[in-house]
Amino acid sequence: MNNIIELDNSYYIEILNRNNEIPVNTVDICHLSLIKVLKSKNIVLRIDFDKFNIRDYKRILKNLLRVKNVAKIINKEFGITEKEKKIIAYATNFNESNLKHKDFISGINAIFYKTRYERYNYIYDTVCNYLDGYFYGKNLCDFKNNKCGEKRNTSSTTGCCHHFKHKALGPFSKLVLCEYLNKESYTCDAKCLPCKLFTCDYLENKGIKFKIKDILLLDVFFNPIQKYFIKYMVFTPKDKILKRLMKL
Ligand code: SF4
Ligand code: SF4
Predict the structure, then answer these.
(1) Measured in angstroms, how far is the CA atom of residue 177 from the centroid of ligand 2?
(2) CA-CA distance, 162 to 156, in Å (whole number)?
(3) Which of 131, 138, 198, 203 to mutate to test the pocket of ligand 1 (most atoms within 8 A of CB)?
(4) 41: which DSSP letter?
(5) What is the bridge-based pairing of β-strands 77-78 and 80-82?
(6) What global pTM score does this model have?
(7) Rounded Cα–Cα distance for residues 222 and 216 (Å)
(8) Distance 236 CA to ligand 2 centre (A)
(9) pLDDT tens for residues 59-100?
(10) Residue 103 pLDDT exceeds 80
(11) Distance, CA of 52 to CA of 70 (rounded, Å)
(12) Ligand 1 centre from 163 Cα, in Å?
């Protein structure tokens, strides 16, 4: 068996090298259509990373999701079983140190979840892990004595984990620490993706900014209203955000 990528839900993608013959009866992922699905007994994809580029990723993944959903309704299966592994695709010219290639594979992984909730949960966790990894161990916010770079010359501590709380009576609101900030580890107990995506002027001046359209998993699988909530539902725990996304 050649190199193999294990996806979730017991699916696999087999990586072929230049000397391997591409198995017959595979469908080029770039030209996948419902007609081809109807004609195949089992749909096995062919992915040649040299045949398309990053600009095509969104279109190809959206099409695969649409076709996979229809295939499920008409009881057509993706994949063949080889040595007890369910192979859904053969890939050529895959470069495992190319992050864009890996993002594309994550998109395929997302598509083969059984339910929309499971897919959103996977995407949510994957993007959170990516953002956590981006910041981990770098002190990009330049915290010193519990004051970040943006708030250096103010009395404010613990970065931007504050929000305004409206008093029940009276016209004034008060700036309070977010209730999800872990007081011992100074980490977020809410796993709030919109907060993780937030970058203030200080970070942006350092060239750090996250745009939803640049994060493939968010860009492909969510509609504009969902993207709005992913950007603005700050100070909110993961379960509430997922619940909202499921309604949109
Ligand atoms: S994002 Fe900006 S405001 Fe928030 S902790 Fe970092 S430097 Fe401070
Ligand atoms: S929800 Fe947002 S503001 Fe609250 S602790 Fe988490 S990251 Fe900080």
Answers:
(1) 9
(2) 9
(3) 203
(4) S
(5) unpaired
(6) 0.93
(7) 10
(8) 7
(9) 999 999 999 999 999 999 999 998 889 999 999 999 999 999
(10) yes
(11) 24
(12) 13
Q: Which ligand is nearest to the CA of 146?
A: 1
**How does 178-206 read in b/e, with b if 16+ C-beta sit within 10 Å?**
bebbeeeeeebebbbbebbbebbebbeee
pLDDT in tens, 147-161: 999 999 888 888 899
**What's the pLDDT score for residue 45?**
97
Closest residue (by CA) to atom 4 of ligand 1? 160
Top mutation candidate among 156, 160, 204 for ligand 1, by most atoms within 8 Å of CB: 160
Domains of the chain, by residue range, sit at 4-112, 125-247
Query: What is the whole-number distance in angstroms between the Cα of residue 183 and the centre of ligand 1?
Result: 17
Residue 91 carries which side chain, given as an amino acid letter? A
Q: What is the 3-state secondary structure (H, E, C) of 60-128?
A: HHHHHHHHHHHHHHCCCEECEEECCEEEEEEEECCCCCCHHHHHHHHHHHHHCCCCHHHHHHHHHHHHH
Residues with CB under 6 A from ligand 1: 141, 148-151, 159-160, 199-200, 202-203
Q: Is the pLDDT of residue 1 over 50?
A: no
